[in-house]
Amino acid sequence: MTLTRSLPTKALSIRQPWAWLIVNGHKDIENRTWATRFRGPVLIHAAKGMTRLEYSAAALVFQQAGIQHRFPLAEELQRGGIVGMAEVTACVPPERRTSYWHMAGCQGFALRGAQPLPFTPLAGRLGFFAVPADVLSQIIQNQ
């Protein structure tokens, strides 16, 4: 796989299986309790934590959306590192939500151009965070 854009230097940590849904082009909104002015490409980091309840809830939403794709088993989901990238194009307030994935009462970070990347281990952080240069180099080498 080759990168279709320059590699972002910022990342956003998202719990699985939501990160998988984003990087595989199924989910076009990331829900947050806070708004952002950030726009542009971002690496998608899969957080280490994932409960059975989170997995089951996402699987149900996936099924209800009628997506004709196999939903991964919980043990197939990579966690604790970079799994892909996408572009943040807007922050949609809850009263203007139109996406199936935009939850009531949440700010929705509108995403486009998502693509998976080879897994690269990295500890996550809250909010948008800078990715160290050595990790960026490792992502490029994994291509």
From TrEMBL:
Coiled coil: none annotated. It holds the Pfam family ASCH. This is ASCH domain-containing protein. Residues 12-93 form the ASCH domain. It comes from Cupriavidus pauculus. InterPro entries: ASCH_domain (IPR007374), PUA-like_sf (IPR015947).
